[in-house]
């Protein structure tokens, strides 16, 4: 009689061997393999990743793997993407808002969809805010009788939002800013959403200046108009501002050159970066971080083995070399056409939809593959968690 099979043998492979197997897989097989067991998942998190693109076209989205040069066509639950705005992404998930101002999370591979609470539910906060639906426009945000109009078009250009999803247990945190003074957030931890039951599934509202924000490890970093970084703790029931543990509190960012756009990002080690898209300079992007010893902001010459997507909020571990010729490697910044003021606007030439900036050489590799399918394109990082 044969002996029972050792089901634990595969989970005890040496990490270096398992990592080499993972790195030889295509992205979809990599994503399936990392869910086999907790050990495989832990090892997969040490493997380099690289961004894909979502090219949105009507009710279909095209997922493009730029290194494998493969196109995956997905019908994402019949959603007409001409009637939604994609606000943020994290791993295989994207945060979207539709024309009725209903928010959803969508997994671009499994098509799983999570509906977030309606804005008409009561808001959690220290002031009497409420949303009042208006079928002609969207919503009115009311405070002490004063109404602020909120429409779907407000999210067309103002996409200050973050998304975090735990790929193992399904926990998630969503936050988005509107009118540059209000941050709305929602948190699901454990078997149910934070609160005392279905009646308490509601958005939290935080009143603060917000030009941009980034999230990592239960902390929301918010860049204000007076050039400071505030930190909000998300470990508890409601987000609370952290004052004593904020190393950036007394160190405003003073950059004298012309800024086209500014975004925050947090490295894997937890350092906050200020990423700038510049106007009229040879160096189109640059990065700063705070030197805590001298209390001043210094330029970052290298991201080491990491790269970032402009506006994504975090850095990712990346391949050390450019495998495909598209510039996707460590020490690079992926961006979209409206993140960068290109020289094309001076020559009236059509500007490519997206590109990759090399920090070491200050050069841009433009990505033109599939750009003719749609003007709606976004970067995302499959498997990131």
TrEMBL record:
<feature type="domain" description="KIB1-4 beta-propeller">
    <location>
        <begin position="63"/>
        <end position="349"/>
    </location>
</feature>
<dbReference type="InterPro" id="IPR001810">
    <property type="entry name" value="F-box_dom"/>
</dbReference>
<feature type="domain" description="F-box">
    <location>
        <begin position="10"/>
        <end position="50"/>
    </location>
</feature>
<dbReference type="InterPro" id="IPR005174">
    <property type="entry name" value="KIB1-4_b-propeller"/>
</dbReference>
<protein>
    <submittedName>
        <fullName>F-box domain</fullName>
    </submittedName>
</protein>
<dbReference type="Pfam" id="PF00646">
    <property type="entry name" value="F-box"/>
</dbReference>
<dbReference type="Pfam" id="PF03478">
    <property type="entry name" value="Beta-prop_KIB1-4"/>
</dbReference>
<dbReference type="InterPro" id="IPR050942">
    <property type="entry name" value="F-box_BR-signaling"/>
</dbReference>
